[in-house]
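Intended use. Records like the one below are meant for learning the mapping from a protein sequence to its folded structure. Do not use them to infer anything beyond what is encoded.
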Amino acid sequence: MAINFSAALGIHEQALHVRAQRAEVLANNLVNADTPNFKARDIDFKSVLKGQMSASTMPMAATRGGHIGGSNSAFKADLMYRNPLQPSLDGNTVEEQVELSKFAQNTIDFQASFQMLNSKFKGLSNAIRGEA
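Structure written out for the chain above:
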């Protein structure tokens, strides 16, 4: 009997992927905190995860051999600009304290998803070995 990893692991694998992508976006904001006219960006975690879940359950079918499959279109479509609380005179919308706070929360959420995924793997491992 084969194990269906998508069913066994649930949403946690995709959540880790989206959290990692969000960490990259937030880190990019922090790196560009002093760049004139740089616009801070973020993603809507729920909508991106929903898009990845629907993409993983309904894969795209190419109607012709030359068509290219989508890879990260759900993520790119949900990349949004952040509205600053206090606009900067140089046009930069990065607010370091806001970005650091969002980065820290994203890190905590990533760790929670990782721990959930880890416990799923432990459960699968125990089931394979016949342990309770």
